[in-house]
Every structure is written in structure tokens, then in C-alpha cells.
Design brief:
This protein is mainly β.
């Protein structure tokens, strides 16, 4: 069992930066692939970025490539999302999720953190 807690969201002007952090509580988190998703009002939840349990193979949705960076520190049980050059369309609730089996099925989710980008 793993509990995920996101932090770092907030209000920022377009062009600014935020760093989201996902803290995991559970001894097996370091063996789980992890990802960030987001959901904007009236839209479906979408994949933003993912990283393997070992910290390799980072993947990004096209709209955030070259602006967002995902990283993890297994010693601290954290996965971060550095978001630069933010745009109003990045406004959403951001969720951290963990995939225990490497099957791209995310069994564990955090409660989400709001990111609002003003124009």
C-alpha cells in the first residue's frame, strides 16, 4: 500500500515556473513507475509525464516537452515535476500516480494539487 501526497501547486503568471512534489509513504514506492497527470475543468484527465522506477526513460506529452522535467529521488521517496514557461492552458489539477507492475495501470493516486496560470 502506498499513499501519495502532492504539494507545490499555486497561482503563477504565464511564463513563470512551479515545482510540484509528490511524497510517497510506503516502503515499496521505489519499485513503482510513477507519473503526473492533470485534469482541467470540463476536460478528461491526461497524462503529463512519467518516469520509471529507476529514474530513467522519462516520457512527456507533446504539449509539455522542453518545458517540464520529471525526476525522482528514491532515497527520499519523492517524484518532482519542474514546470517552466507555464501557459494558461497548463491550468489544471495535477495528480501524482504510481504503477506497481509496470503495466501503465496506475493503482495509487494522490489527492491532487491545483495549478493556475494567469495570462
Amino acid at each position: 500500500q502506498v499513499q501519495l501526497v502532492e504539494s507545490g501547486g499555486g497561482l503563477v503568471q504565464a511564463g513563470g515556473s512551479l515545482r510540484l512534489s509528490c511524497a510517497a509513504f510506503g516502503s515499496t514506492f521505489s519499485t513503482y513507475d510513477t507519473a503526473w497527470f492533470r485534469q482541467a475543468p470540463g476536460k478528461e484527465r491526461e497524462f503529463v509525464a512519467g518516469i520509471s522506477w529507476a529514474g530513467g526513460n522519462p516520457q512527456y506529452t507533446d504539449s509539455v516537452k522542453d518545458r517540464f522535467t520529471i525526476s525522482r529521488d528514491n532515497a527520499k521517496n519523492t517524484v518532482d515535476l519542474q514546470m517552466n514557461s507555464l501557459k494558461p492552458e497548463d491550468t489544471a489539477v495535477y495528480y501524482c500516480a504510481a504503477d506497481p507492475w509496470g503495466s501503465e495501470e496506475y493503482d495509487y493516486w494522490g489527492q491532487g494539487t491545483q495549478v493556475t496560470v494567469s495570462s
